[in-house]
Every structure is written in structure tokens, then in C-alpha cells.
Amino acid sequence: MSILNKPLPSIVQRHPRRNRYAIASSRDRAALESSPLGDLIVFVETEADQTQLFNAFPLIGVAVSDAGATELQASLKRLYRFKSLPDVPIIRFDTATINAEAALVAQVLESGLDRLTSHVTRIHTELAMLRRERETLFENYRALENAFHARNWDSVTEIFNHDPCVDPKDEGFASLLRESEIEQLFPVSSYAVSGFALHFRSLPSGRSGQLIVTLDYVETGEGIAEWIIPYGSIVADWNFFSLPKACDGGHRTLRLRISATGSVPPELSLGNVITSERYAAKSRIPHADLDMRPLAFRVFTGLPGVRPTTLPNVFVPTALITGRKVEDYRLPVELLRGISNVSVSSIEPDFPTVRFLEHEDAIVCHPLSEGITAGAVRRVVAPGTVRVSARAMIDHPEGQPGAVGFLLVSLSADIKGEIAALDRPGDTRPNALFSGWTEITAQQPIDINFMLDTPAARTMDLVVLSKATTDSVDFSWLKVFNFRLVKHLEARPVQEMANAR
């Protein structure tokens, strides 16, 4: 047979893998390079000062000989100095079964890591595209806003106005805000609403307290924002409240809720009598002035989803409560009657230091010269509670000053142990939440507002605390009353939210 007629030997060209996940010493190259794991291995030279790995991220080290394992460990130590590799485990192959063991390791690396790598690569590519699209969207949105401003189109427009109407027969309902709350529906759609204004006709002297204003949707109960405004910031005129952005989405009904804590709040103005009972101001406690009369208020709209910028003297939201229902409730008298004395003090006075005042719906918590006076109201803090507030005063003109605070304690905790830990600042209280101490004198009542960082996860006990701040506690009859709690609930059931996702 002529040499020209002889069949040519098959030429197999092996292309190195782009990504290699195993590392080995060049001393074991002969045994490993021909194994099923050969394309996944990067070999390092021990003699050379090799400090770079190209197209490799070793997750496992392999060795056949003792010398190869020793040299691989030395090479890895040099690579570890750069803090770019995790700790790489080294496994030993038996010469007799090297092909089977190498095939198993190669299958694990290829079947899992390659798919994961390609998936991550696609995610990064799509993320880069989304970022570019997001930047383009923001640029277009900014150009749209600039076009509005260039044409002097006001981003805030008044679409509803109900002026105040002074009736000489009005008795005023400011005290109603402390005992209940006022509800007012907006007679306009929520779409594009960016703020509102309330009119106050008078401001009491010695103002001390806070006005609590909440805006939510009637159809879903979903909250939008909450404003907590000190009395001193309110003026006897129009007061403007701004949303973080104009409402977007569907057309819904907005509901305004107003309540107060502290002394007598500023007097809200009412408008003229209207024929629609739906849009009259309402309260859980009947009041003659609210008969078919709405609040005096104004409503403003803007660009949906855009923050309003032209409202004057604006109150910005204290908290955003989007996606949650807000429940503002008072502690019923039946629960306050059950207060128990859990004081931690070595002094046993001959008068009751913790008790309930029946006709004032108040709790007395008289401080002692040593220790902490405490009264516990069991199981009153519901899950989801985010704020506990109350009014406190020393009910005697010659009463000595003191300090007052709240402690929320889980039902399984040792209440007295948690109270005793308050005198040890370094101790942690995993089963309790402490409001901190607020000093109080006989000259000025105070408001206690305990804001929780996160909603309460379970039912808890409420503990009222007091302690002395001077050597004397004479006539220090500390009274705490007007207990109010605010609870946040998800607007939709958890199962429904899970299905929506």
C-alpha cells in the first residue's frame, strides 16, 4: 500500500476550558492532565514565583503524590496573601482509581458551577440593561419636569376649598380630639393629590401637646402618611400638610383622621352646613357642632408621583405608612382598673403608691426616695403596636419633681427583674422595651410618646414607672392618664400578599 493511501491519524485538538475551578501542582501534571478533570485544572509551578491565575477561580485542590500536595500547599500560601481566594481544601487521588475519582469531581464542578456561572452572567447582563433603562427613564422624567417649570406650569394646583364659617353658637370641639378623633373624607379623587391644608381658628394659651394627623385610603384601609405636629408649630390660619409625592395609581377615596395628646389642642375650624352626610366631619363621640358640617380644608394636586415643591409653610410627614392600616385606640377603663403594683424598692410606705383613680381614669404612680415605683397593666399592648403615648402630671402644687417612663415587657418575662435591670445601664433587656426617663415637675404637665423602632411582634404588658429625682418625694402625686396606642396592620392578609408575589 502506498503511503499516500494510508489513512491519516485522527487529530484531536483539546481546547482549554475558559473557567477552571481546580488547582494542582505541576509535579502531578502527568497524572492529572490526562484524567477527566484535566480541562478544569490550573497547574502552578512551585519554583516560579507565580502570583497570578488567569481564567481560574480554584475551589478545590487536587494532588496525587505527597510531594505534589506539599508543593500545592506552599503555592496556595503565596496566593492567600492577596486575600482574593477562599480557603481551598486539598483532596488526594489514589493512583489506581484516579480516573473514577477525577470523573466524579469533574461532574460535580461542571454540572453545578457552570450552570450557576452562566445564570449569574445572564443576571448581570440583564441588571446592566435595567440600569441603563432606569437612567434613561430618569433623564426623560427630569426633562419632563424641566419642561413644566420652563412653561411656568405650577406643579401644585388647588382643586378644592371649603372656607371656614364662624357660627356664634359654636361651642368648640377641641377637647374632642383628646377623647376621640375627627374623620373627614375628601370629596375629590386621590389621583394626583399632593397635599392639603387645615384651618385653625384659635390657639389656647400654655400650649403643650401634639396633633396627630393620618391620611389613608377608605377602600383598602391602606395608610399613606402620618404627621405628628407640636401645638407650638401650628398657627391660627391655614396650615399646610405635604405628601412625600403626589398620589398615583387608581382613583380612590382619601380619609383624614385627626386626634391630639396633651393639653387642650388648637381649635379646628368648621365650614358651612352641607347636604351630603358622607362628607361631613364625624367622630365616635357625638358633638353638636359636627352636625352636617365638614372641616374647613383645602386640597391640592400635582404631578402624580412627583414631590410637591410650592406649598408654603409645609408640615412634612413624620412617618410613611404606605401599605399598612393604622389603628389608633385608647386603653379601656376595665383594663386600667386591673393595674398591679410591681414596684422594686426597699421602702414600704403606709399609703398606696400605685392605684387607679376611678373618676379620672388615671393611674397614680407615686415615686419613692429609693428604687422604682411601678404599676403593670397586663396584656394590653397588641402585636403591631408602634407607639404608646400618655399625659402625666404631678397633682399637687407643692409636689416634688420626679421622673416617669414606660416599659413594655413580654408575657413570659420576670417583670420585677426587668424593672431592677433599669438601675444597671449595662444590662441588656431582650424581653423588654424601655422608653427612657422623662423628668416632670408640678408646674408643667408633660406628654410621653414612646415610639418603637419596629412594631411589637407579640402581646406585651405595659408598665408605668416613676422614680425620685431629688432627696424628697413629698406630695409627689404623679398621675398618668389619656393612654393611647397606635397599631400598624398590613393592608392585605399575609397569604394574599404571598400569592400576589
Give a verbal description of the structure.
By secondary structure, the chain is of the alpha+beta class. It has 3 domains: 17-153, no CATH class; 156-323, Sandwich (Jelly Rolls); 329-488, Jelly Rolls. Helices cover 19% and strands 34% of the residues. The protein has 7 helices and 28 strands. It has helices spanning 29-32, 66-80, 98-150, 176-179, 333-336, 415-420, 494-500; strands at 20-25, 41-44, 56-63, 90-92, 156-162, 182-189, 193-202, 209-217, 223-230, 238-242, 253-262, 267-268, 282-283, 297-302, 314-315, 319-320, 324-330, 340-341, 354-357, 362-365, 373-381, 385-394, 402-410, 432-434, 438-440, 446-451, 460-468, 478-490. Strands 5, 7, 10, 12, 14 and 15 form a 6-stranded mixed beta sheet that branches. β3, α2 (66-80) and β4 (90-92) form a beta-alpha-beta unit. It is flat and about 105 Å long. The termini are far apart. Mean pLDDT is 83; it is low at 1-16 and 491-501.
Q: How many angstroms separate the termini?
A: 74 Å
Count of structural domains:
3
Rg, nearest Å: 36 Å
Classify the fold: give the CATH topology of the largest domain.
Jelly Rolls
- Percent range for β-strand residues: 25-35%
Gross geometry: flat
Low-confidence stretches: 1-16, 491-501
Q: Sheet with the most strands?
A: 6 strands, mixed
CATH class call of the largest domain: Mainly Beta
> Structural class from helices and strands?
alpha+beta
The CATH architecture category of the largest domain equals: Sandwich
Which range best describes the helical content: under 10%, 10-25%, 25-40%, 40-55%, 55-70% or over 70%?
10-25%
**Count of individual helical segments:** 7
Using DSSP, what is the number of strands? 28
- Name the average pLDDT: 83
Protein name: Membrane-anchored protein
